[in-house]
Amino acid sequence: MPDTVRTATRTGTPLTLSLPDALDGRSVARYSLLRGPALSGVAGRSFTWIPEGTAPGVHHALLRAESTNTSPDTLVVQIRLRP
Asked: With the C-alpha atoms ordered 50, 59, 48, 37, is the resulting torsion angle positive or negative?
């Protein structure tokens, strides 16, 4: 099962989330977005999302976490969007 980071924001309020330096004891060299809500992205160790026009509820982003000399891992960002 992938690692999960949980966070929350309000509709119309941009979210910036610092991503973990390590997963399962392995240092993460780079993150990339595999799938996420519209207007979301990854830059360095930050996940950002501008939830404009998005309905309240729970939304997910799926990130690829790459480490040196090991297989990539997956990180799920679970976002509770409040009205």
From this structure: negative
Q: How many CB atoms lie within 10 A of CB 29?
A: 12
Backbone angles phi, psi at 72, to 5 degrees: -60, 155
Domains in the chain: how many in total?
1
In angstroms, the CA 13 to CA 4 distance is 22
Please name the amino acid found at residue 22. Answer: A
Cβ atoms of 44 and 17 within 8 Å: the answer is: no
Other CB atoms within 10 Å distance of the CB of residue 14: 11
Q: Rounded distance, CA 9 to CA 54, Å?
A: 12
CATH value at residue 51:
2.60.40.10
> What are 15-70's pLDDT values in tens digits?
999 999 999 889 999 999 999 999 999 999 999 999 999 999 999 999 999 998 88
Residue type for position 11: T
